[in-house]
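Retro notes - structure team

What went well: the batch runner handled both jobs without manual restarts.
What didn't: labels got mixed up in the shared folder, which is why I'm recording both outputs here explicitly, each with its sequence directly above its tokens.

Job 1
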Amino acid sequence: MNRLSLIDKGLGYVLLQGILIGLILFGPQGFSLLPQSLGAWLPYFQILGTGICILGLLLSFIAALRLGKNLTPLPCPKDDSQFIQLGLYRFVRHPIYFGVLLVGFGWLLIYPYALTLLYVAALTIFFEFKIKLEERWLLEKFPAYAQYCKQVKKLIPWIY
């Protein structure tokens, strides 16, 4: 795989992911999804959303630490990478993506707007495609990955 260019290793996916995350955090928000009758609840949604964002950041950070030198933003694993099944990887195959999605959904609670929902939904769908590509490469590199996929959920621990 070392002969592949950055484009072939999935650089476009990384760029699109960055754009989607940027839109969630800084893009136009559109109209509010929160009816006026629930406006008094907004501070509680924001507190909950902040907690979910912090949890997502923490999970992503811990998962990245566990990957160590294996960490790459590209979906293609590094040539010298090793198969990691410890830490958060015992519970979900893609804990960094799970953490990023938690941040997105937490952000949606803080800023409950239509376009924010659209961006978070787009990021969720995007991760499905990126994971499909990444897992194809992981299966090629690590034959034991097939059994791991049977035992560990893809994106949401114990659920999906």
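Job 2
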Amino acid sequence: MRLDFHTHGKLAKKLPFSAQYTDWLFAEAKNAGLDALCLTEHFNTLGFAEVYGYIASVSRREGDALVLENGLMVFPGMETDVAEGGHILCAGPLEAILELNSRLEPHKTPGRFLPFAELMDLFEQYPVLVGCGHPFRAPGRVPELPDEQLRRLKFLDLNGKDLALDRERTEALTRALGERLDLPVVSGSDTHQAVQYGCVSTVFERDFSTVGDMYAEMLAGRYRIELAADAAFRVRTAAILKRSLKEIHALGGDYVQILTARSA
């Protein structure tokens, strides 16, 4: 089972939700060889509930996953900023993710982000799997927190974007932190658009449809991380494409139509 732990369903969090764009993303994820992904959408993205309402309407429920027509399994999730600087990922049942997002409404702007300890207190009230996204990406400071707090996490994200920029540093620091805290290290592409899918993925020996079983497989070590040979190229290309599409939108153009139009 090939899974991407860190993905997004929108081009950018300040842009409106587009069902057509999200459909394109999920089709491309399947084409890239993924069997499943954690949709760790930014907790303060525009239209968070709309994103999940749409996905729920075009999928069937299997355990905690939303299974699309093409067979791709989407584990609902969220990426949340913390006051100390840095991002915390979570994945779990759709109802838990939506309720958590609603409860975080007062804390969605800089200066109001919850401190790590308070955010973990909130997450621990729900059946969600919680990890740290790209722990060593500036200006994040999560690894500097006391170990007794960090051990409340369940995993660390060996992030595709950071691997592409500096593989040696990213891998050494993330794995060292995982060993120190006795936490599994898994991988996510951190993509907002399709070119980046597959730059890095986590390949499990067994299939699962719940975050409980996902965590059990992580703890058992029945997985491997695969980094594509062209990961750096994919990440650079994705960044250029994202900037270009956002500029099209800013100029009043329809970036989704341009992106998804078929050649004559």
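One thing worth noting from job 2: Residues 91 and 129 are 5 Å apart (CA to CA).
We'll revisit the folder naming next retro.
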